[in-house]
Amino acid sequence: MGNESDHTRLDLDVIKGMGTGLSNVKRAFDGLDNLKNKYADDFGDGDLADKFHDFAGNWELSRKKLTKEIDTLAQIAKELVTRSW
């Protein structure tokens, strides 16, 4: 039988790359403009404007939640790489 550690070996370069990639995604999300403010005038008044306003509000909330989760994963990956095993 093989050693159990053979199955739990970590490729720290891959994990480091994931942490960097996730940090880049977070920065990109942080840099997105507020859709409601940027495009609100383009839709005028009425049903389409209302639908866009709802979409933009939901997107803003979802983006903030996703950004926080991405940042947490990036920090975990970076911390894992910096720990000595």
Structure notes:
The structure is a single chain. By secondary structure, the chain is mainly α. It has three helices and no strands. Helix 1 packs antiparallel against helix 3.
Mean pLDDT: 85
> What ranges have pLDDT less than 50 throughout 5 or more consecutive residues?
none
| Rg calculated over all Cα atoms | 20 Å
Principal-axes geometry comes out as: rod-shaped
Number of helices: 3
How much of the polypeptide forms β-strand, as a percent range?
under 5%
Q: Which bin fits the share of residues in helices?
A: over 70%
Task: Compute the number of strand runs.
Answer: 0
Distance between the termini: 24 Å
Main sheet characteristics: none
State the main characteristics.
85 residues, single chain, mainly alpha, rod-shaped, 0% strand
Short description:
The chain has 85 residues and is mainly alpha-helical.
SSE diagram, text form:
Blueprint: H1 12-30, H2 35-39, H3 47-82
Helix pairs in contact: 1-3
